[in-house]
Amino acid sequence: MKPLTPRFPTVDRNGFVPAPESIPPPDVKYRQKVPPGLPVHKHPLNPLAFLLRGALIYPDHIAIAHPDVKHPAYYTYSVWAQRVQNLAYALIHFGIKPRDTVAVLAPNAPMIADAYQAIPAARGVICPINTRLTPLEIAYILEHSRAKLILVDYEYVHLVKDTKIPAILSNDTGRAGDPYEEFLSQGRRFSRERGWWGLEPEPDEDAGFALCYTSGTTGRPKGVLTTLRGTYLGAVANAYETKMDINSVYLWVLPMFHAGGWTYPWAATFAVSAQITLRNVSYPLIWNHLRNSSVTHYCGAPTVQIGLVNYPETEKLLKPVTAIIAGSAPTAHLIASLEKIGINPVHTYGPFTRNHLQESWLALPLEERAKHMARQGYSYTTADGVRVVYQTEDEDLQDVPQDGKTIGEIVVRGNLVMREYFTDEKATEKAFKGGYFRSGDLAVMYPDGSVGIQDRSKDIIISGGENASSLAIEQELVTHPDVLEVAVVARGHPKWGERPMAFVTLHPSKTAKWENKHKEFEIDLKAHARKRLPGFATPEWVAVVPGLPKTSTGKIQKVELRKRVAKL
Amino acid sequence: MKPLTPRFPTVDRNGFVPAPESIPPPDVKYRQKVPPGLPVHKHPLNPLAFLLRGALIYPDHIAIAHPDVKHPAYYTYSVWAQRVQNLAYALIHFGIKPRDTVAVLAPNAPMIADAYQAIPAARGVICPINTRLTPLEIAYILEHSRAKLILVDYEYVHLVKDTKIPAILSNDTGRAGDPYEEFLSQGRRFSRERGWWGLEPEPDEDAGFALCYTSGTTGRPKGVLTTLRGTYLGAVANAYETKMDINSVYLWVLPMFHAGGWTYPWAATFAVSAQITLRNVSYPLIWNHLRNSSVTHYCGAPTVQIGLVNYPETEKLLKPVTAIIAGSAPTAHLIASLEKIGINPVHTYGPFTRNHLQESWLALPLEERAKHMARQGYSYTTADGVRVVYQTEDEDLQDVPQDGKTIGEIVVRGNLVMREYFTDEKATEKAFKGGYFRSGDLAVMYPDGSVGIQDRSKDIIISGGENASSLAIEQELVTHPDVLEVAVVARGHPKWGERPMAFVTLHPSKTAKWENKHKEFEIDLKAHARKRLPGFATPEWVAVVPGLPKTSTGKIQKVELRKRVAKL
Fold first, then answer.
1. B residues 223-262 near A, CB within 8 Å?
2. Domain final position from A232, A259, A292
3. Which of A312, A459, B2, B568 qualifies as a FRET site for B323, CA 20 to 30 Å off?
């Protein structure tokens, strides 16, 4: 039989002993009261149950490992559950009431992992804030979310120095003297050992749970409010789809603040997996863990995956690792590159769809198969069906034909959809027009009923009356062996109306090859494109750039590129 | 990469072509209407969604294989979904209205597999009836369940020949001319190709779904009514816990009529697994499939597992198979025997608890580890917690100490519990006294918070003031190398009040050894017992019998044994 506890051979846990307040009492009970008025055959779906169950069944299994810092920390499930309980009591002691928002401004570290469990345990709503935002943007979110308290990591204190909202500071030491640790200890004292039984359970599974703000490429960020029920079902589906279990080690490459950590804070507790927290996206550290820490799963947007694949000391992994890719559509080229080094991509689109391997693909060459794998696929196990509809203004949504060509908008509904844009009825109404969440993403539906994103509506290039998908063009351009990343936008053209313009970064090892020869590279890339794309989709212009502008979550900012184009 | 479609090398599918009415139209859509009045972020949990999703994503994957009959049949997911749709329309055409009960009296075969999906698709309630009951018992269930229609297999027609309820007969041929096939064709015609869209979805996830009658060892059988929500969450948990997926082949050893097939009719569709239906528990057929049909999973009560392990042509399986054991508690000896031949037992208790392997057990000898694995363990992933409480008469349930000794009653609540005993408020109220479902099973709670069943209350033997668990005694007696099965009951004793009496069947290969030497065997077994049990638990009497009386679901009927003992 396989060993049940993953090992962390590169880390020395001997030096670390959790504070006495983090140790559960000998008679700890992982049970909460039954909310009154429920029939015997019902309990509200609440992801907190996963942590309690994990701590009950596998108390000594590693839950959180935080190795790559000055003060490493390692928490077993039972110790972690106690710390979560302490934080929940501390929040209540502070004055947090049901439905109150508590903000978190922190990198991947124990504090934010605690917060994802403890704020809901105190019946609050967690609002994790992107650490790459400006102080002004953060101030807006704090105000809009009505945050009553901020949990803030020492590295980001400067971003909230002007706020009047009370803050708890973490120095990320896990040691006595750390204000965050002191806050936890206060919680433990305040609990008077009432334990989980003393924390009132949330009776309504439809209650708000996490409040994550959009990055707001256009206009003000909006607060996406998800529910307990939606998170529960999303986390279960993710654990199932990616085969996470007690033997899994989940590496936090994705910032945990990003869109509720794609539900993986709870998918990991559902599966009773170990989580390794990394403060920053550091390729040497990531590769170290992939090689030496029994990592089995990680999430990352395509841009992070590209960095990982192109890291100079890449090697083929002996034990396959599952990489969950979402955030934006990966190119077929990226998928193929990951597979070559032993990383199995699971390509998902939000919590709504995933790509499902088909037997008929197995005989295909890797590049061909990767094209199929780059499609967004089918609806998630616990999601309702996904549709691709015409962009009608009225409420009657019309499905596009399943021809793999006709472009429509992806719309979704059901348990994995957000409940609302927080306190923004108008925006919610608009997003839900027609009884579906309007994603704004443009896609086709293939004859097999699977979905393939083409572009967001503004990313379609109308060239001589033809609709060219900038994503489809990018998919082909990136297969050029010297290209690292590429972004295509529309640029005005006197004859064709619009024509594609490609912004390209070169592979580090190929930069010297094309130095002062950008014109020659342009000719080479266009020749490459003409073999693979129709004329109207071949880029008219190619600009080699040192880097592409990206949002704080790693998405390429086409808005910026369009601004540049406008000035040409 | 692994092949995605399991192979059935022992069967020749060439001969079988589904009827034209079973072939979906080219533009088939696997989508139902959205029930009115729902917010965008909610859809009712309904296990029917699993089949529709399976048919959409893997239309050509084998869903149902029915090989070991005169007329074998093989249905892919798309064909099966069409047949389910046809049956749903046929039921509506017949006059089935929402909440109407439709009974099924059939062995494992395509019809009952269809019924588990189609009756809920028509918004009816499925009532699968145990084929081993008497005509009188069946008549009672048909009347009590208010069945409007019976789907009946040719082998069991004689059991319902006096009923006035209309019946649809299946000759289990899957061919034209079979009344069941004609019923499906009627459904297809009646549908006028309205497809899934034309079948009204069930708006209430709390609606009754399956109505399964208890075997009624004491008194009349009771109708256990489960809900859509409960079944959905139970099926997802089972698929997750047993790691069923697209590569899995589930062998129907357990009768599908038994307690909703332990939710595996839907766990299999959730996982898009293949199902092989076996009309009867035939060890040669089971072993043939274990060896040759890529079987990965099956369910069975301990008695079936014992038969399987003791089949003469047993061999160690090359690819491990997962056996889900429930129905009654397996002995440690059985668990160890299964592991020796490459069968990994997953021991569950109803849909409430399962045994979870612990790392600390791995170093133990197999027999020792199996003892741990024979415990009922911890609450299921999607269940609420399980408790062991004192048998108080008032509503205030008191947990027993976690000492592994104090016996109490297992009580459970939450989403995996039945909604009610159908039309029996009094029995429901009694079963739910104290806000929990009172299982009637006696257990201890160990210091690690796991549960171990001792006995049903009447199986405790009070010997000289000591409580002896008949199950614990059986666990030890069955380790005697010549014993096949054993059942222990209390027998009156002038001095001690009660003493254990053991009824034993011998292993087939050992029957000759002890022929006309039952007294010697008794001495041998008692000596074996004394080494392992306290004096008060050592059996005072041993009876070697040719077979043990069993219920129609394979449970040993201690009631019968007690009757025998009363006459001694």
1. 227, 229-230, 236, 239-240, 243, 245-246
2. A292
3. B2
- Among B41, B45, B53, the residue with its CB nearest the CB of A417 is B41
Residue B360: pLDDT over 90? no
Q: Is A265 found in the same domain as A121?
A: yes
pLDDT at B469: 80
Q: Do A308 and A324 reside in the same domain of the chain? A: yes
> Does residue A457 surpass a pLDDT of 80?
no
Query: How many domains does chain A contain in total?
Result: 4
Query: Which of A182, A164, A165 has its CA nearest to residue A173?
Result: A182
A362 and A395 in a single domain? The answer is no
Query: Contact, B213 vs B129, CB < 8 A?
Result: yes
- Report the alpha-carbon distance of residue B19 to residue B79 in Å, rounded: 10
Q: Please answer whether residues B512 and B518 qualify as being in contact, where contact means their C-beta atoms are separated by less than 8 angstroms.
A: no
Contacts of residue A450 in chain B, CB cutoff 8 Å? 57
The share of chain A scoring above pLDDT 70, in percent, equals 95
- Amino acid A116 reads Y
The answer to whether A301 touches A308, Cβ cutoff 8 Å, is no
Identify the three-state secondary structure at position A347. Answer: strand
- Say whether B381 and A270 touch across the interface (CB within 8 A): yes
Q: Is the pLDDT of residue A249 over 80?
A: yes
Residue B152, beta-bridge partner list? B105, B169
- pLDDT tens for B100-124 read 999 999 999 999 999 999 999 999 9
CB contact at 8 A, B471 and B454: yes
Q: Residue A427 belongs to a domain with what CATH number?
A: 2.30.38.10
Domain boundary among B260, B292, B324: B292
φ and ψ of B431, to 5 deg: -65, -30
Q: What is the pTM of this model?
A: 0.88
A151: which strand partners?
A104, A168
Judge if B411 and B524 occupy the same domain.
no
Asked if residue A408 and residue A483 are part of one domain, the reply reads: no
Q: Do A5 and B239 touch (CB under 8 A)?
A: no
Is the domain of B70 the same as that of B142? yes
CATH number at residue B556: 3.30.300.30
Tell me which residue range forms the domain holding A339: 301-379
- Tallying the residues shown for chain B, one arrives at 568
Based on the number of CB atoms within 10 Å of its own CB, is B437 exposed (0-12), middle (13-18) or buried (19 or more)?
buried
Helices (H), ranges, B441-517: 470-477
Q: Which of A407-421, B178-192, B264-278 has the lowest mean pLDDT?
A: A407-421
Is the same domain home to B338 and B443?
Answer: no
What are the tokens at B449?
Answer: 């918070």
CA–CA dist A131, B421 (Å, integer): 54
Instruction: Tell me how far apart the alpha carbons of residues A100 and A123 are, in angstroms, rounded to a whole number.
Output: 8
pLDDT class for A7, splitting at 50, 70, 90?
low
Q: What is the mean pLDDT of residues A371-392?
A: 85
Please choose, from the candidates B45, B165, B156, the residue with its C-alpha nearest in 3D space to the C-alpha of residue B101.
Answer: B165
- A154 touches A180 (CB < 8 A): no
CATH number reported for the structural domain that contains residue A203 in this entry: 3.40.50.12780
Residues in chain B within 8 Å Cβ distance of A206: 42
Predicted confidence (pLDDT) per residue in A117-153, tens digit: 999 999 999 999 999 888 999 999 999 999 999 999 9
Closest to B283 (Cα-Cα) out of B303, B308, B306, B301: B308
Q: What is the pLDDT of residue B234?
A: 95
Cα distance between residue A399 and residue A402, in whole Å: 9
Average pLDDT for residues A359-363, to the nearest whole number? Answer: 85
Three-class SS of A424-460: CHHHHHHHCCCCCEEEEEEEEECCCCCEEEEEEHHHE
Cα A461 to chain center, whole Å? 28
Q: Residue B41: which of A30, A31, A418 has the nearest Cβ?
A: A418
Mean pLDDT computed over every residue of chain B: 90
